[in-house]
Design a protein that fits this description.
15 helices; seven-stranded mixed sheet; eight-stranded mixed sheet; Guanine Nucleotide Dissociation Inhibitor, domain 1; FAD/NAD(P)-binding domain; binds flavin-adenine dinucleotide; 20 strands
């Protein structure tokens, strides 16, 4: 039998955006129902706990300076942060050669270093002039939105080594090939997280801190407080809207609400049937925001043995599938955990391998970086995000050319009583958890203004 419920606000998607919006509406005394397709909350943030108490973040994991809303939520939900381990030497493995280095400046020949430094500073300078709440208004918006980041990089980075390292950095930031990205979108995204240095760095950057208990703990605490207002395993299939209410339908349930917040990735919106159909601009925007592509690969050891070799676990490389490796060990170093990102085109190619091949490939890379001990972890596990039914990819919805200028103003525009949240709609920290939280706050304010 179909269940029927009436409420003031319905929210679709229990990621950080939807949970924030639902919690704020509840605090304002409104009746809320939050519907989530998965059997868990957190969305693109998912902490996996093992029987021995070890846990890994299969999705998002870091917070850094400027992400004030994320830190505030961690404090509010009683979750501590701890610094990402980065003490020791980093490794650069390019053109089959491995070099150790300390600090932020990679051991490249001087012309390559100068070229890299010039490109980073130039991208910072151009992005500083962008208004993140309306990037399409920039005087050069049309020109930049007609170009790709990849095209700009080829014009700027004449040194092959510098180009390669810059590509690794951009793929790590966007989980996309630079040729997929509009240059205007890339500048906006950079500005939205302050600058490239902030996006790239551990200390004073977006990779500075991790969350004790895992990055989904604040989400689980928000859901606990919302209690039975959260309905799991309830994918929304259809939304019917009229001038006074919105009806949200899924398998065996129907919810009628005075307002609706949709807090899911843009490409997932296309799976929902709308009656009447969404405005053409909104639908076409959703069709133009594909998800990035990333795998997270984990090798868990009984201790972080690389630290004794003076290494901090950080590797940037063009060798094999993983292009960046981090020390993801727990704060107390009770276990040693290495995490490798496989990104963009390499992530798509990696998806064609069987698990045994993926494991063999990643472990052989790790052994090359850290020695034979890396070949024998207690556990290897990896996580593909493109095959996640309710994400379709990660980290975020990206924009190719001619999307930001033609469709950008649609990102946050409400559709009658339907309001739009999700990190992709945020002007600040777009693509990050912090942006998701901010988008939930904005959407909640929109509906509370008339509910
Ligand atoms: C591998 C990886 C690494 C990342 N690293 C970081 C990081 O270190 N730091 C950082 O800040 N960010 C990082 N991100 C990005 C971050 O995870 C996202 O920006 C953020 O979690 C998005 O939150 P959201 O609420 O907007 O969307 P989501 O988390 O995607 O939430 C949307 C929810 O809606 C649900 N849903 C979808 N369709 C339906 C439907 N039809 N009906 C009902 N429910 C539906 C989904 O199941 C999901 O729970 C990373 C992401 C990934 C995947």
């Amino acid at each position: 039998m179909e269940s029927y419920q009436e409420t003031e606000l319905a929210v679709v998607g229990a990621g950080y955006a939807g949970l924030t919006a639902a919690s704020l509406a509840r605090q304002a005394g409104k009746q809320v129902v939050l519907v989530e397709a998965r059997d868990r909350v957190g969305g693109r943030v998912w902490t996996d706990h093992f029987p021995d108490g070890t846990y890994i973040d299969r999705g998002a994991q870091w917070a850094g300076p400027g992400q004030d809303r994320f830190y505030a939520l961690a404090r509010q939900t009683g979750v501590d942060t701890f610094p990402t381990h980065d003490e020791g030497m980093s490794l650069l493995c390019m053109d089959q050669r491995m070099k150790k280095y300390k600090g932020l400046i990679p051991p490249l020949p001087l012309p390559a270093l100068l070229s890299l430094d010039f490109a980073i500073k130039k991208m910072n300078r151009l992005s500083a002039g962008i208004d993140p709440s309306a990037p399409w208004n920039h005087r050069r918006a049309l020109e930049w939105d007609g170009m790709t980041l990849g095209g700009w990089m080829r014009a700027q980075l004449k040194s092959r080594k510098a180009h390669r390292l810059f590509t690794i950095a951009m793929e790590a930031i966007f989980a996309a090939n630079p040729d997929e990205l509009s240059f205007l979108f890339s500048l906006f995204y950079t500005r939205s997280g302050k600058d490239l240095d902030t996006l790239m760095n551990i200390r004073n950057g977006a990779q500075q801190d991790r969350l004790m208990g895992g990055a989904d703990l604040p989400a689980r605490r928000l859901a606990e407080a919302l209690g039975d207002s959260v309905r799991l395993q309830a994918p929304v299939r259809m939304v019917r809207a009229d001038d006074t209410s919105v009806e949200v339908c899924g398998d065996g349930f129907k919810i009628r609400a005075k307002a609706l917040i949709i807090a899911i990735p843009p490409s997932q919106v296309l799976k929902i049937r709308f009656e009447p159909g969404l405005p053409v601009m909104k639908t076409q925007l959703m069709q133009r925001m594909p998800m990035g592509c990333v795998w997270k690969c984990y090798a868990i050891y009984d201790k972080p043995f690389w630290r004794a070799q003076g290494l901090n676990g950080l590797v940037a490389t063009d060798f094999g599938y993983t292009s960046l490796v981090f020390d993801n060990s727990p704060r107390d170093g009770e276990k040693g955990i290495l995490m490798g990102f496989v990104l963009a085109d390499k992530a798509r190619a990696f998806s064609n391998l069987q698990e045994t091949e993926r494991k063999a490939s990643i472990l052989s890379s790790l052994a090359r970086f850290f020695g034979p001990a890396a070949s024998n972890p207690l556990l290897y596990t990896d996580q593909c995000w493109a095959t996640e039914e309710w994400s379709g990819g990660c980290y975020t919805g990206i924009m190719g050319p001619h999307t930001m200028t033609a469709f950008g103003p649609e990102l946050r525009r409400p559709t009658g009583r339907i309001h739009w949240a999700g990190t992709e709609t945020s002007d600040i920290w777009n693509g990050y958890i912090d942006g998701a939280i901010r988008s939930g706050e904005r959407a909640a304010a929109e509906v509370l203004a008339y509910l």
